[in-house]
Amino acid sequence: MSCPVGQRKFVDYHQGKLSFEDYKKMNKHIATCDTCARKLDEIMNEGSAKRQYRTIFLAKESRNL
Asked: Which of 23, 56, 61, 65 has the fewest C-beta atoms lying within 10 Å of its C-beta?
């Protein structure tokens, strides 16, 4: 990641570990930083794909019981 702000705070932002004030600042930053906005999209899409796969896998497994 080439954004120095994002590098320092992105993981904590994504994991919900920022204070409310820092969270608001990071939201403003993401709204204006294409690098951080893309990174957030990647993380959200990856998490969504994993949840979707897990749901399908568990549904198939439950039919085999």
From this structure: 65
Tokens 């979707």 correspond to 52
How far apart, in Å, are the Cα atoms of 42 and each of 7, 25, 27, 48, 58? 15, 20, 16, 10, 24
Contact 6, 33 (CB under 8 A): yes
φ and ψ at 6, to 5 degrees?
A: -65, -40
The reported pTM is: 0.61
Whole-number pLDDT of residue 51: 57
Q: Which residue has the tokens 């930083």?
A: 33
Distance CA 32, CA 37 (A): 8
